[in-house]
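so the lab meeting is tmrw and i was supposed to have these ready like two days ago... anyway. pasting both below. for each one the top line is the aa sequence and the line under it is the structure tokens. i havent really looked at them closely yet so no promises
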Amino acid sequence: MVASLNSSRPVLDQDARSGQSRIRSITAATTLSQELHDGQTIYLNNTTGFATTLPVANGTGMKLRFFIAATVSSGSHTIVTASASDVYKGFAHLFGDDAAALGGFSTTTGVTITMDGSTRGGFAGDIVELEDVATGVWSVRMFGHATGSEATPFS
């Protein structure tokens, strides 16, 4: 018996949102929501830093990826947890401006990620990956560049 494709029904991609791009560019302070932003790459596209606030961590598996599109030249980009009881658990890997400088930072209590375009990342091409892994916990992985005396982006 030969299997045939039932062409009378549309084939749907179960992970796609109807008509929505997986990349969302933001240029000013924004509060994210699971309904609108889960699974998206957030393109931070402003040289003047601004705050981005996450939804409350409830262990939903929500994933976000932040891409720094333009190096911060004034102020700082911050990614802030919505609830003071939510924390980041993970690391930042920031390579320095000389071959001997390498900043590796971990956190289990941070509530803010700060990227200043200098010692704490925030350069074009830097990436921050977040996942809502448990009630009150965001997993974080940050890969980027830092200059001067590298410092932790977590506070």
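ok protien two:
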Amino acid sequence: MKFPIVSLTALILSFGLLTAQSPDVVIYPKPREATRLAATNFVARSVSMPHTETAAKVFNDVLWADLKFSAFFEMPSKSFYPLKLLRSPPDVDFDPWQVAPVDVDFLVFGNLQAETAGVVVEAYLYDVKTKGQVLGKRYSVGDSTLVRKIAHQFADQIVYQLSAGSSRGIASTQIAFSSLKGDSKEVYIADYDGSNSRTVTANGGINKFPGWSPDNAELAFITILSGKSRWELWIQNLQGGRRVLPMPTSYVSSPSFSSDGKQIVFSGRDKGSSNPDIFAADTAGENRTNLSSHRAIDTSPTWSPTSRQVAFISDRSGTPQVWVVDSDGSNLQRLVTEGGHCDSPDWSPDGRLIAYSWQAPKRWDHDVYVVEVASKKIFQLTSGRGSKENPHWSPDGRHITFQGTRTGTKQIFIMNADGENLKQITAYGINEGPAWSGYFDQP
């Protein structure tokens, strides 16, 4: 069961009516002024080796998409670029890059060669105004299929450098989700843009609600195996091996790791109880603590970034709404009071916002909203055709993933945290319950 550069044109929700709200919510961290960036096509050093041009096209497409989606840069169209190819620093004449319609602050260029031993990429980032080098990287991989990974890594390096370390980018992150193909629903992980999808489970059962451990080494999810009648909470190591946390009843749902990886919170039932509560336990399933203890339905818990609070969904007020409780079960507060049906809260990495889905009274579809924890202001991020549910933040807090039905079946989407730049990243099967990983590598 599971109930900063661009300002957000926000809509605040008030008693089921949408009224205009000033654009005071932005993607954080917000630069003082827009950074204009040009990313030229990397040039094949030689086309004599097979696959060089193909590898170059993949690299160029991925790098451009990563930088554009980062929400850090204004990127003029390549159709405005000077025609001269840029393989290495001596090729650059900076003057044409400083006049309209290009007029950029930074310039990305380089070269690529597919060799028998793999792919070699030489990549550069220059400050156009000072004509100084900001980055110079040489990447070498033994498999040409890893050219996407190189592009992701360089994109993240650019974001890190040009944001003064305030963001590490999200190009090298991954998204876990459940996918129904055939008779089983398995857990998959994919690159943030939907490429390189692969299975985590292959048990033939129904596996749902994956959640990443803080070190990205494990996924927690619930599963019910074929022929069984009992849901189980599994923690699976991505390098192999798993453990099943003991539960007193056949119901468990929506696991979420604490920020230190030592605890897990989930919705479950004690023996003799008819409705689920919110429980915290250590990652062996021991030392269970009931945080909500109410006859209502309590589900969909999510830790705050400090793990001092848990947000969850409860219908104790009559309809499912967002509530917050301290990690010891005290200081219970209702955060959303607008009626309708709330579901799937997820706390932003900086602790300012909680994303959730909401079905307004007398409406069929859910949309994605965020509530500002301190002020309780509510902002709508999605609209239009289909339901949008299960929102989850990226580790830099500048993007959100969710499941949506705007194309007919449940698929995974990503967007900027202001609701802009929407992209569908899955297409085959029925896909739901996305969870964005943390960072895998140090900057």
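from a quick look at the 2nd one: DSSP finds two helices and 32 strands in the chain. Confidence is low (pLDDT under 50) at residues 1-24. will dig more after coffe
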